[in-house]
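[Solved] Which block belongs to which protein?

Original post:
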Amino acid sequence: MRWLSRFLGILSMAVVARLLTPEDFGIIAVTTALIGLMDAFTDLGADTALIRHPNPQPSHYNTVWTFTVITHSVSALLIAVCGYFSSLLYPDPRYQQVLYVMALSMLIAGLTNIGIADFRRHLQYHKDFQLNVAVQVIAIATTIACAFWLRSYWALVFGGLSRSLGRVALSYALHPYRPRLCLTERRQMFGFSFWIMLRAVAIFLTNKADRLVLAAYYKPALLGLYAIAGELASLAVFELLHPIGRVLLPALATKQNDRPWLENNFKKMCNISATLATASGVGLAAVATPALTLLYGQPYAAAADYLVLLALLATLEGFSQPIGQYLLLLNRARAYALLYIFEGIATLSVVYLLATQQFDLQYVLYGRLAVSALAFLRLFYLLRMFKSVGPLTICASWIRPMVAGAALYFGVSHLQRLLPEMPVGLLLPVLIACGALIFSFVLLLMWLLMRRPAGIEQELLQRLGLYHPQSS
C-alpha cells in the first residue's frame, strides 16, 4: 500500500515539479509546516489507543472521534488566525490565502470515521490498502489537473484539500460504523493519548518546525529545494519502515503477555529496522544528485547537499522505530514522548541560532545532525527497561548494517566519479544496482563472520530455502 501510494506520488511530483518552480514548493513548505504543527497537536494516537484496548466499546470509539473533531476544529481556527497575522511574520503575502484553505482542509479531516481503526486492529490490511490508495489517487489526480490548469502553488493546495475530502468520504463508505458525539471515556482514552500527542509535537519540532523559522530568513526558492530534499529523504526511509511499524504494534499486541518471547526477539526487530533504514537512507545519500535530476529536473539538483544530510537524519530515526513500538506496547508512552522532547527543543534552538546568523542551510543541517546524534544516544537510556536485552546486544545487531552502509556509500560515490559522462537516466539504475550488490555482499559477509546471528539475513535466507538453522 505504502509503496504503490508513494510510487504514484513520485510520478505525480515528477510531472508537477516540471510545471512549477522551487519557489512554489517553498510557499507550500512553510504553510504545510504550520499544518504539521497543528496535526501534531491533534495526533491523539486514536488508532494506537483502540488497538491496545483489549475490548473497546462504542463509547471508546465515540470518545476518540469526538476528541478528534474538537481538536481539529480548534486547530483549523488557529490556522486561520495564523493566516490573518502571517503578514506580520513573513514578508510574502501569499501565505495568508493558502493558510485559509488549509484551515478548511484541517476542519474537514477531523470528521474522518474512527471506525477505520478496525482495519489495523483486526489486521484487515486489504481494506486499509483500498482506503489509502484511493485517497492518494484522488489527491494526485487533482494536483496534476490543477498544475496543468493553474501553473502555480495552488495546485498543491487544492490537492491537499481533495485528500481530506476524499478520506472522509471513503472512510464512511468503507466502514459501517457511524460515530456520535460522546466523552464518557475521556479519562481512560486521553490519559494515553496525551503522551502520544506530546511525542508527535516533539517529533514535529525535530523534523518540520525548522521551516517555520527558516522562512523568516531565507527566500522561498531556497526553502523549496530544502523541502523537496526533505520529502525525498522521508520517502526513502519512512515509507519503507512505516508499513513495518503499522503491522508491528498490532502484531506484538498478540504477544504482549509473553514477555520472554518479546525480549528474545527484540534484537531481531532492531536489526531488521536498522538494515532497511541504512540501505534506503544511505543509498539515497550516495545517489543524491542523479536522483534529484532524474525525478524532478535539473533545477532541483542544487538540493543534493541537503538531501545527503537529510537522508542520514532519516536513517538515524529509522533505528529507533522498534524501541518506540515496544514502549507503546508496554504502556510507556510517557517515556517515548520524553525521548523526543529534548531533541525537538534543542533542534529548534540550534536552527534559530544558525538562521539568525545567516549561515548557509547546509550548516543548519549540520546542526540538526549533531543534535540528532546526541539524542540517538538517549536510546540506550531507554533500554534499561528491557531486563534481558542490554545496550551491547542492540549495538551488536546494528554493527552489520552500519558497516554495510559505509561500504555502500563510499563504493557508489567512487563509482559515480568514474562515470561522469553517463546519461542520468542510465547512471541512476547502474548506481542503484551496484549499491545493492555492495550492501548485500558486505552484509552477508559480516553475518558469516559474526557466526550467523538472528537477523534479517537469516530471515531472508530461510524464506528462500537457502538456510536451515536446525541443521547448522
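(Second protein starts here: sequence line, then its C-alpha cells.)
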Amino acid sequence: MLGRGLLKRCPICGTGRLFTRWFRMKERCPGCGYRFEREEGFFLGAYVVNLAFAQGMVIVLAVVPLILRLANDPDASILPFVVGGIVGAVVAPMVFYPWSKTVWTAIDLMLRPLAAMEPTDRT
C-alpha cells in the first residue's frame, strides 16, 4: 500500500490519475470508487507528513551542510545555507504535496483497514 502511495496511486487498487490539478485531489478513486476523505479533517495527517518531509529537507539542505561547513571554516558565509533552508521550507512542501496526500491515505488504510460496513463507500 505504501508503495502505491509513493507512486501517487490509489492504495487499494493502484489506479493513477488521482489529481485534477497539482493541489486538487479527486474525491473518489476513478478505479475502485474509494472515498479518500474518510472523515472530516482526514487530510490533517497529510499535512503532518508534508511538514515532516519539509523539515527533513531543511535539515538535509541547510542544517547539516552548515554544521559541516562551519566546522571547517568558521568565517564562511551562511547565505547559501539560508537559501537551502528556504528551498527546503517553502519549495519542497509544494512539490511534495500530492505525494503527502496519497502516502497519508496509504498509512491510514494500514492503520485502519476498511470495515465491512465501509467497503469503498461507492455512490
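Accepted answer:
You had them paired correctly. Confirming on the second one: Residues 2-111 form one domain.
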